[in-house]
Records
---
Amino acid sequence: MTKSTPPNIYETKADLSGYTPEIDSAFDEFMRAFEEFKDTNDSRLHQLEHKMSADVVSEEKLTRLNEAIESNKQKMDELVLKSRRPVYGNNAQTQGSSQGCLQHKSAFESYIRSGESHNLREIEQKALSVSSDPDGGYLVPDETEGTVMSSLKSLSPIRAIAGNRQVSSTVYKKPFSINGPGSGWVGESAARPETTSSTLAELTFPTMELYAMPAATSTLLDDSAVNIDEWIAQEVQSVFAQQETAAFVNGDGVNKPKGFLDYTPVAESSWSWGNVGYIATGVDGDFAASDPSDNLIDLIYSVKSAYRGNSRWVLNRSTQAEIRKIKDADGNYIWQPGARAGEAPSLLGFPVSEVEDMPSIGSDSLSVAFGDFNRGYLIVDRLGLRILRDPYSSKPYVLFYTTKRVGGGIQDFDAIKFLKFGAS
């Protein structure tokens, strides 16, 4: 018996006001590819229903269209991201900066361009920076750090959906009540019984050092037209985003954050605190042969209602391509594109985050995650982005050893669930 699908509006109209013609055109190409994909897949499903197999031409065309959809979506997302990038060194920021910030910015630029560190060292000593250490580099201006962190949130799909804390120490400790605080009902004049003690667990999130090492030529550093803040930010943000995302998904917690896939997965019926529950598809390395959308619906309702309202899907491109072919009991495609350029697609009414570091569908793979990642996964950033100038190691180039400290791990084990492509 086919289960009912969660509420969803399948047909939406795009509102592209405020976007450039280039973005509008990319969105139109994306939607045309998706419509052609649906027509081709309908034909394939019709062949499977009546002939028990689909012809090779239809399968190959469907694969090409899937690739076209992904290509158009990537192009569209890049254009939208480019249009949203912050403007470096604009007048509003400059006018709003304090004298101290301007001095830091000027001293930092002198250090990057020529290696002059005296003024930068004085500024950090005056600020009583506990981490001031010439051998470990110098703190970048707040404006530059803010730009990098803002860009990371746009570039890293997990950072964009997870919880976040900024700390000044190397470890963040968080007490968590496993069974909730003791509570109850009493009459107005009745005696107040003692409440039972909460069971508390202390979660620790150590921050680990993440580095990037962009290189510059003397010509670039001598060119006064080059915005040093912008150059530093652009050089490190994509590298940081790639490393972070991989660690937030698969990290083993050794010199890197602990990824949510590194925790022990258990069947949802046997779930306990400290583990992550999963729902099995019943078929090794695949969805259920009959009504595959039921597997996804089961996963949705394995998450408690308190978390479900802010839940989303996390999966990679190849898994999304397989799900894109699935219809519900009413003949509607369960995957739908975003209503406008830059908006996430939806699956059974919940938004989708595409994360390439998630495993593809295979034997006993945990290829689909679902839940409230804002409550479930925590990213901890230690304040301060540091740079050490190295003009010696790779002459004639100047290396900039850029570091930040970041940690991560699950903070609520009941907020995230997996779909396991296995028999049990």
---
Amino acid sequence: MLSKKCKYAIHALVYLAERHGQGPVQIGEIADRQKIPKKFLEAILLELRNGRILNSKKGKGGGYYLQRSPEEINLTEVIRLTNGPIALLPCVSLNFYESCEECVNEKNCTIRTTFLTIRDETLKILSESNLAALVKKQKKDRK
């Protein structure tokens, strides 16, 4: 399940993707338009900046903006940064692997093989879902 932090991050990034190339956007504007608590959003945007998804500009006319094009930022990257593992079991995680204590033989575990398939399909969908695609779908759905 996605955390509130992760959902807010995605909403903020889609908002910034809609304004890509128009200059930095202030935190207050994002918070107001996306109905995200400002203090929470500040921490989220800082984490996204540290994760090299966003960049920021200080001073007058400052704010946050995407460090890369919306086509280059996919949901896999955002979820891993703000939510952690995508896999439902630690024994199938690519970046957060841990063996299961109760598993006798990991290679022959039918539960694990099922969840490997789920992980692979989930990663495929999330990797193809970039910010540009989300913006495009959002615009289409508004019509």
---
Amino acid sequence: MIAIIDYNMGNLRSVENAFNKIGTETKIVKDPEKLINFDKVILPGVGAFGDAMKHLQSSGMKEAINNYAKSGKPMLGVCLGMQLLFESSEEFGSHKGLGLIEGEVKAFDTSKFQIPLKVPHMGWNDIIVKESPLFHGLPKNFYLYFVHSFHVVCDEKFVIGSTHYGYDFPSAVQKENIYGFQPHPEKSHENGLKILQNFTEL
């Protein structure tokens, strides 16, 4: 059974519906004490980093997520959920994250863009991937759906997928049993559903 964490910041139904399409049962979980009972966990997220961390802290879900990460069972952060896995973010100030992966979240540096591009980065873009069980059955380069103004900066050893928007940035990461995707697999049609299917089979 897969838990989808509810902390008042995620597009829960969209994620739930995507798993329904691949015939995988999920449960939306708000009680932090129940999280450890699940085989896998999804940390979704839409909104501001600082607000999200406040919700996780006040609900007790922050501690529950950290304990779950130590269990060795697979966890997947999506969009803001991926960013929360890291140590800090500069979005609307300076905020501490979950610290499960070393790195930080920064705004797109438009001064590095060779041509004018709009921020947020919104729409379909390609991801170039490394070897990972999440990409089984997919090509080395395929398209996913993005909506974000901030991105992760981390050591290359954690990067399993990268995307170019003005410059290259990490769009998929992994540290041991912890995975993260900046794009939205649940909104990315067949490619996204294949990633979610592969996650269920970890």
---
Amino acid sequence: MTAFSDLKPKKILFIATRQIGDVLVTTPLISKARELWPDAEFHFLGYRGKLDMLYGNPNIAEIIETSDRPSFGEYLSLFNRLFQRYDLAIITQPSDRAYIYGLIAAFRRVGVLGGHPQGKDVEDKSKRSKSEKQNAWKKFICMHTVTVDYFNQHVITEKLRLLEVFFRNPAELFSKPIIVTPPDGEPLTPSIANALVQPYVVMHPGPLTAYKRWPLAHWQQLITYLVKKDLQVVLSASPAKQDVQLNHDIISLLDDQTATKVINAAGKLSLPQAGTLLRGAAFYIGVDTSITHLAAACNTPTITLFGATPPTNFGPWPNGFIGKQPYQLRARSQTVGNVTILQGPGECVPCRKAGCLDRADSNSECLDFLEPTQVITAVEQVIKST
């Protein structure tokens, strides 16, 4: 454990150069840092188009955007903008680029280090050695580091532990309710707002990668059940072509009467508007994706379908949970606070691979065999408890 530091930084840069969900899960870290340093100025660096989860966040004074593949000119401009402007850089991703940004920007740094196969994986000494070599220079430039554990450590715990070095008693980090802060809401577009009928359910079928998908026929069966329960269904999706097509394919399987009770919101909502939609929903059902984390952060009852991803690492945080780990690694159904996580069958679950073929376009049998009846049972429990 690194020795306690009484550093009192005046300007701090948070760095999260990954996806939308990775930005959202930094918000408890930002809130806890604000408790530590109430007068400090906080800036946030991330990829362009991935930072809407910070919309309206009262703790962030400035957002700095960069492309995920910067040109030489953009690198030079960013270098001039960042160079030694900060007293502390908090590096929340283990990538080399994130660490280089932190090295350029600040006099002091704390950071997340990449992990090696562990947990359910067979130990591979060569991979472990490679990981340690890659981490050596990152450890050298940081006053404190935290290593990723993909099976046993929740990502929010990982982020909060970056502040351990600033607490005489690091257990204080987890002794109070831990809250994920969603973006401020924005009014819905009239076409969506005028079509909504209470009560409604939001469903988000489209993940970033194919191996997190649930079969189309399962969505059809679930939507048919919900409509028969007199619930309106809103299908959300990003503007990405494959997500828009996925929603279209699901709706095409519905009979005409059921389809009239479904709103297709694919590509029609910003993230702040999605937050508004979620806050008004009776509950939410979705796969392992950023909108699922947003639903949980909006305190909406959230049912999520997990396949290869360990919920102990990246399950949506149940807002207000006190402690380091809300979830079990493996349970067909587990509910903590406002979040229910469902996992499919199989001794290999969760494997943390990219589906059964370990590639982005693979299917995942654990999701293929996660029956709609299992989700319907979870829905009935949510309805009973509300």
